[in-house]
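dumping this here so i dont lose it
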């Protein structure tokens, strides 16, 4: 069966001893088989493989295999920072969030959206930008609706947030109307409150369907007999506001796209019989690293951010408008392969804001080939570089200038 014909609800990433897989469950009851799709083949970390972290951040690594069977080590470094007052300087957070090997959900995987995305992956080609939190009305006044905005560098996403509304039948004329929005002070910014969902209410299964970009949302209806009292989405693209129950607007959210949803699934490659018979459990040959970009499409950078980009958040914090610059840091990696020392720089993989927690985090990452004998890899050394003012500020906010992530002791 061609990949584009499959519809999924994924339990996302699970670490099963020696490999990382996606467990995909079909949306349609006409699909009888569950597809086990290997996204990344994680192996047990070799006992000699160590990470020497000379930064105040968290760091982790894993040994992976790409679609061509090449052995690679992937490293993720995660720095957590305080969101400063408007125009203030960014400082190091007291608690550094751990590197995640799997997506973390708000609730049950497959039935809820991703809260925290996986940090350590095979690789990325672009920076993800996301936000976990709520819309907040100015001065905490009750409102029917408001605009929220997140801007990082040249990337910006604006969302129209509206109070709860429902479809009701017109008394005299045919059709449906929307109820007035219920007043609110704050609203969760999650996919469950954005346009999407499924409709499997029709007796004819051929008339079942769902939104492939957000199967857990609300507002998607095919059967007019179940439109009344159905809740409209709270989050909308202000350029595509809903006016009719059959409208199919784009999904609006700052969260993270599940691995089984559009547009991510189109980068997963061709999972056909030929792949199962000849290439499985490796990734499909046409697998694209863009699969690991899980941010909203409008918040995926073209290439990687460099650090230092201006940030502006409007109506995303009870403290009002937030404006500051990302720290301009560089993460360097040195690894020993046998007796040879290799130097490289990590790319800025993700920036995730949590304004309700007064923090945000940055994930830098890089993967590199280690050949057919990964046991030759001695260790990976992680160091931080940047402008002297930035480095000094972070050190002043850090109780320890080095984070002991090493397994055992490594002499430089």
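and the seq i came up w/
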């Amino acid at each position: 069966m061609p990949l584009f014909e499959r519809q999924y609800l994924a339990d996302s990433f699970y670490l099963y001893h020696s490999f990382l897989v996606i467990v995909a469950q079909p949306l349609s009851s006409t699909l009888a088989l569950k597809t086990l799709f290997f996204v990344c083949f994680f192996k047990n970390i070799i006992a000699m493989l160590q990470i020497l972290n000379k930064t105040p951040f968290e760091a982790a690594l894993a040994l992976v295999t790409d679609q061509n069977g090449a052995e690679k080590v992937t490293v993720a470094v995660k720095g957590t920072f305080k969101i400063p007052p408007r125009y203030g300087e960014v400082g190091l957070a007291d608690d550094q969030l751990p590197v995640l090997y799997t997506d973390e959900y708000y609730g049950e995987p497959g039935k809820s959206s991703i809260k925290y995305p996986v940090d350590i992956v095979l690789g990325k080609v672009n920076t993800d930008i996301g936000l976990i939190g709520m819309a907040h009305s100015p001065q905490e006044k009750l409102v029917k609706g408001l605009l929220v905005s997140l801007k990082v560098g040249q990337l910006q996403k604006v969302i129209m947030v509206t109070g709860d509304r429902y479809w009701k039948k017109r008394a005299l004329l045919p059709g449906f109307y929307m109820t007035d929005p219920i007043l609110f002070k704050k609203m969760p910014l999650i996919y469950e409150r954005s346009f999407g969902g499924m409709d499997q209410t029709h007796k004819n299964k051929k008339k079942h369907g769902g939104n492939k970009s957000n199967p857990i949302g609300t507002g998607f209806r095919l059967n007019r007999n179940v439109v009344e009292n159905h809740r409209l989405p709270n989050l909308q693209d202000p350029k595509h506001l809903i006016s009719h129950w059959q409208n199919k607007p784009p999904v609006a959210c700052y969260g993270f796209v599940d691995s089984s949803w559009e547009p991510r699934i189109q980068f997963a490659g061709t999972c056909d019989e030929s792949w199962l018979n000849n290439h499985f459990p490796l990734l499909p040959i046409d697998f694209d690293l863009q699969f690991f970009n899980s941010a909203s499409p409008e918040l995926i950078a073209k290439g990687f951010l460099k650090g230092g980009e201006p940030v502006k958040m409007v109506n995303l914090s009870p403290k009002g408008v937030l404006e500051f610059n990302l720290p301009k840091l560089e993460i360097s990696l040195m690894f020993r392969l046998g007796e040879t020392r290799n130097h490289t720089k990590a790319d800025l993989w993700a920036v995730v804001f949590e304004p309700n927690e007064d923090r945000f985090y940055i994930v830098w990452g890089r993967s590199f080939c280690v050949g057919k004998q990964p046991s030759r890899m001695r260790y990976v050394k992680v160091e931080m570089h940047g402008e002297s003012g930035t480095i000094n500020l972070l050190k002043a906010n850090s109780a320890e200038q080095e984070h002991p992530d090493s397994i055992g002791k490594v002499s430089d």
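The two ends are 53 Å apart (CA to CA).
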